[in-house]
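Fold this: Phosphonoacetate hydrolase
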Amino acid sequence: MKNLPNCPECGSAYTYEDREMYVCPECAHEWLQTAEPEATETEATITDANGNPLQDGDTITVIKDLKIKGSSLVVKVGTKVKNIRLVDGDHDIDCKIDGIGAMKLKSEFVKKLG
């Protein structure tokens, strides 16, 4: 049996499906099945080493020497990285580093500037 969501209007647990809609028999409220109420407020945010929230386009600095696998290159402490992009996964920052190129970094090894 499917676990259907409670009605967002009255909280009733007796909701049912009608094609692509959920329907509440108690208050007659209808909503799309793809709609997730308040989902954007509960999403986990990506934070830097100090707990500051990161956003696309931020400028960060590296707080630890990072060895690059398969190469003899190292990203040094204090390296400034502009215009980051946040992505899903273990390495949650996508960026370009001058002299090295495109890389993915873990947010635990960076500090937000500004």
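The mean pLDDT is 87. Residues 39-42 form the longest helix (4 residues).
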